[in-house]
Design goal:
Layout: H1 3-16, H2 18-54, E1 60-65, H3 68-71, H4 83-92, E2 96-111, E3 114-123, H5 127-130, E4 135-138, H6 143-148, E5 152-155, H7 157-163, E6 173-176, E7 179-187, E8 192-193, E9 196-197, E10 201-205, H8 206-214, E11 226-231, H9 237-252, E12 263-267, H10 268-311, H11 313-321, H12 326-362, H13 371-397, H14 401-406
Helix pairs in contact: 1-12, 2-10, 2-12, 2-13, 4-9, 10-12, 10-13, 12-13
Family: Belongs to the ABC-4 integral membrane protein family.
Keywords: Cell membrane, Membrane, Transmembrane, Transmembrane helix
Membrane topology: Multi-pass membrane protein
């Protein structure tokens, strides 16, 4: 019997037992759909995180006060960077384009009868340039505001809606710790980033925040938590990072050059690599968990095929009696198992792709359709069908035709 004839006979047999064939394929369908969908989710998460970081600016460098080990000390947290450090970086590092020092806080903001706790950032006019922040209306903080210690603020989109739900906030007053501040601008919506709503932020001149709220918390000057720096170009990020580190080491180590750094420098690329590694590992984990369904589906195919061999003992005996060889029987049963796997893989692929497209529509994740994941899932499902179909097929091929015919 030729291979084409074996395919035709296998197809007729599977068509005659539609319910059993469908249930047999179910594990493969679920497995393929799960693998494709989970890989799509993982890749979508990678793209989303990358876009969120890039929206902050690809040439941004963050100089953070303290080291990772020192920041774990909750009893005496480090407070080493000062405003003079930011000024020194701006003046002495040639590969730096803009510098924006930053003081963080959390305060209750009051506007009329509306009260909202918001993140408070004291910074300079360079912040909008370094962090790629866009003003929706009004204006951001200016250099004159910094020099005059002006009592002005620029609101994030979310906090503006909370405090002024009925109208335009520009020109209105808000109160923080009993002091009134004029709203001079409204930032464009930027959304959440790493669990923090960037629109739920109030920006204030760093001098005003120091004089009105935080005070002088370091004997060496105005203490700050972060220095936001933008390099002159993406190609100069590494050079700027090296030059900033050397400058701060000179400023912070007057005598002991072997002392530990009192700061940490991070770049956008560092953050992207960390997020990429995390989401990549999660993608592999999700795909591996989903791949278990393929294994279960393969075992289901073997079980059903073994049952099929028992049910078709008479058919096998008759075919052998009229001249079918063991290889013909082996080929037919193997083809049936492979057809079930490949057909289930194709249906599962269609469901998985549909799920990925639906996910892209209803969520912010730009889930991608991975050709590699599709090829791997379909190839694995076909291989599973072949692997788990061999044993039942050999069982059928080894049946003694005399014993099989006795059951007629």
């Amino acid at each position: 019997m030729d291979t084409w004839e074996s395919f035709k006979m296998a197809g007729k047999t599977l068509a005659a037992n539609r319910l059993r064939s469908t249930l047999t394929m179910l594990g493969i369908i679920i497995g393929n759909a799960s693998v494709i969908l989970m890989v799509g989710v993982g890749q979508g998460a990678q793209k989303y995180a990358s876009q969120q970081f890039q929206s902050l600016g690809t040439d941004v460098i963050f100089v953070i006060t303290g080291t990772d080990n020192a920041r774990r000390n909750v009893i005496a947290p480090p407070n080493r960077l000062v405003l003079a450090d930011a000024d020194a970086i701006a003046e002495q590092v040639p590969t730096v384009r803009s510098v924006a020092p930053q003081i963080n806080g959390s305060e209750l903001a009051i506007a009329g009868n509306n009260t909202k706790r918001a993140t408070l950032i004291g910074t300079t006019d360079s912040y909008a340039i370094v962090r790629n922040a866009e003003v929706g209306s009004g204006r951001f903080l200016s250099n004159d505001d910094i020099k005059r210690n002006a009592r002005v603020v620029t609101l994030g989109a979310a906090i503006a809606k909370e405090l002024f739900p009925q109208g335009n906030p520009i020109g209105q007053l808000i109160r923080i710790r009993g002091t009134s501040y004029e709203v001079i601008g409204l930032m464009s919506e930027k959304g959440a980033f790493l669990g923090t709503n960037q629109d739920d932020t109030i920006f204030m001149p760093i001098t005003t925040m120091t004089n009105q709220l935080t005070g002088r918390t370091s004997p060496y000057g105005v203490a700050i938590q972060v220095i936001n720096v933008s390099a002159t170009s993406n190609d100069n990020v590494d050079a700027a990072q090296f030059q900033i580190a050397n400058l701060l080491r000179l400023r912070h180590r007057s005598t002991d050059m072997n002392a530990e750094d009192t700061f940490t420098i991070r770049t956008q690329q560092d953050a992207l690599e960390i997020v990429g590694n995390i989401t990549g590992a999660l993608t592999i984990l999700l795909a591996a968990i989903a791949g278990i369904s393929l294994l279960v589906g393969g075992i289901g195919i073997m079980n059903i095929m073994l049952v099929s061999v028992t049910e078709r003992t008479q058919e096998i005996g008759l075919r052998k009696a009229i001249g079918a060889s063991p290889s013909d029987i082996l080929t037919q049963f193997t083809i049936e198992a492979v057809i079930l796997s490949l057909l289930g893989g194709a249906i599962g692929t269609g469901i998985g792709i549909s799920g990925v497209l639906l996910l892209s529509v209803v969520t912010p994740l730009q889930a991608g359709i991975s050709i590699g994941a599709i090829a791997l899932a379909v190839g694995v499902s076909g291989g599973i069908g072949l692997f788990f179909g061999i044993f039942p097929a050999r069982q059928a091929a080894r049946l003694d035709p005399i014993v099989a015919l006795r059951s007629i």
